């Protein structure tokens, strides 16, 4: 992966997620800023640490905690 | 990146040779079996740790009879000069030239995999070099013969999509867990709805009204019969009064037990608020701990690397060889001792930092455990609040009943017979007794019915509360599941965006090269649909590389490589092994022209045994090879 792109991947992902939230009613009717922020945080975390170190439970906790707010 | 020198020791057919390279075109020229491809392989192996020809074992690259061979390159990256050595036994050493000095400083050394460090420092990877920078002999035909899935894997590795797909897989698994949980909650909700479909409030009111009428009638009838109806009713009311009192006492006792440790509900609520404030202020603890764990991991790895480096340096100092076993350069004991001291001091500093971070981590872990305890306590107290609310509701209902009975008991006066039609005519004592018996029977059965309804109503109220709680859980899990769906869709869109970001400019760049090479009849090149096979749409009809002539395939493929390299972030050099192989005379000229144009922007290293290439590149830096012995 070109390193410049690797650095920007988090930003690209955030932009794409925001576009999805705006365009898809199933998302914007149910999810708020806290959930979007948790999803982006989970993505960055998984990408940074790699799948070997990041378990499904870690990602689940990150996302589920924001849904309970 | 500019390659400046190739340094070989017992590598391929070479015993010990250095080859200087220059900017622009470098032509490695010589007959077959003179080691041209070995030089290409040496550069590729030094950079990636893999042979350029797949399925060749590392030991096979060493000179015949040698236990190990080493390939090294000197290169410039920006203003810095580096030396990279790699032995066929897997040892790697990267050095950097110190500013204004002839000394080389070791950046890392040892047997560990250095590919990630090299990738981060110089922004290249095995796939990048293999797909875009190097052209090995016969590669084009091998590439065309690859299965689409195989090419897709190359594309995914090139763009980093393979890592994104791994992340997406984690999100898919998370979504699966959320779906399972959602189904469990929905089943629970459904089972509760079945039992709470009917509300008894109206029926209770109806029974209460009917009971009141019947009790009135019974009092009248008892008065008329002169049998002291008040006494009978009073006895029944007293009985009910006592029963209600007993139930109220039981509930008060239950409330006291739930409240144990708290003076009242307000005290309980204040404690809950205090816990909520405390947990909110500690909400960042888990994230901080994750960061600490990451930091400690990185420090551990740093310490390990430094230990290996120190060990290698110590061995170098202790050895009597006087030469580095990896790069074969003379060993200067004093300088190495200085480097060793620096490394040991860095390791001690890292060790100290590690201990400090470990201590902080222990504190964080203790705080997080305390926080978990608080959260559990919070949950328990919330449960108590719910229990208390239920008890209060039941108490209010009972108190109402109790007050009603008490008021009736208090107001019980000797009855005055009313002249109602139903009763006035029944003057016969036997008839009156029968009517009273029937009324009593109905009153008793209605009371039993009322008790049952009240009990069911209390159960329903409790279940409604549980239903609300479950609804809250269902809303939360729905948001979690949708968040995972959003996460998966986001990765899909990122992959598409990444492909567009890289492949669209690459397609434009191919077109630019094709125009430069007068191959403009190709149009609408699509790298994505065929997974890196540049399929072509010529005047509306689909053609792919397989359908072109051999020389057209070669030219288009080279344009594709140059374009892909540019789109991935050009490294600054290209290495082509025998690019005119299989080209007809016309295309050979075009290829020479292509190399010259490429050299206007990049360093190009070409191997060939074609005299036409040599004649066509008169300004190239020439490296002539003869079998097993090369001269520059």
List the keywords.
heterodimer; A: 69 residues; 78% helix; B: 632 residues; alpha/beta; Rossmann fold; Helix Hairpins; 2 domains; six-stranded antiparallel sheet; 14 strands
Reconstruct the topology from this structure.
The complex is a heterodimer of chains A (69) and B (632).
Chain A: H1 3-23, H2 25-28, H3 33-49, H4 56-67
Helix pairs in contact in A: 1-3, 3-4
Chain B: E1 2-11, E2 14-20, E3 25-29, H1 36-48, E4 70-77, E5 80-87, E6 92-97, E7 104-110, H2 115-122, H3 126-133, E8 134-135, H4 139-145, H5 148-159, H6 161-195, H7 201-225, H8 229-258, H9 265-281, H10 285-318, H11 333-410, H12 421-424, H13 429-516, E9 536-538, E10 541-543, H14 550-569, E11 573-577, H15 585-601, E12 603-608, H16 611-616, E13 621-626, E14 629-631
Parallel strand pairs in B: 3-12, 3-13, 8-11, 11-12
Antiparallel strand pairs in B: 1-2, 1-4, 4-5, 5-6, 6-7, 9-10, 13-14
Please describe what this structure looks like.
- The complex is a heterodimer of chains A (69) and B (632).
- Chain A has 69 residues and is an all-alpha fold.
- Chain A is built from four helices and no strands.
- Chain A has helices at residues 3-23, 25-28, 33-49, 56-67.
- In chain A, helix 1 packs antiparallel against helix 3 (33-49) and helix 3 runs antiparallel to helix 4.
- Chain B folds into two domains: 2-159 and 517-631, 3-Layer(aba) Sandwich (Rossmann fold); 233-413, Orthogonal Bundle (Helix Hairpins), CATH 1.10.287.
- The longest helix of chain B has 88 residues, at 429-516.
- In chain B, the strands form three sheets. A six-stranded antiparallel sheet of chain B has the order 2-1-4-5-6-7. A six-stranded mixed sheet of chain B has the order 8-11-12-3-13-14, with helices on both faces. Chain B has a two-stranded antiparallel ribbon with strand order 9-10.
- The chains are: A mainly alpha (69), B alpha/beta (632).
- The A-B interface holds A 1-6, 9, 12-13, 16-17, 19-21, 24, 26-27, 30-31, 35-36, 38-39, 42-43, 45-47, 49-51, 54, 56, 59-60, 63-64, 66-68 and B 119-120, 123, 125, 128, 158-160, 163-164, 166-167, 169-171, 173-174, 177-178, 290, 294, 476-480, 482-487, 489-491, 493-494, 497-498, 501-502, 568-569.
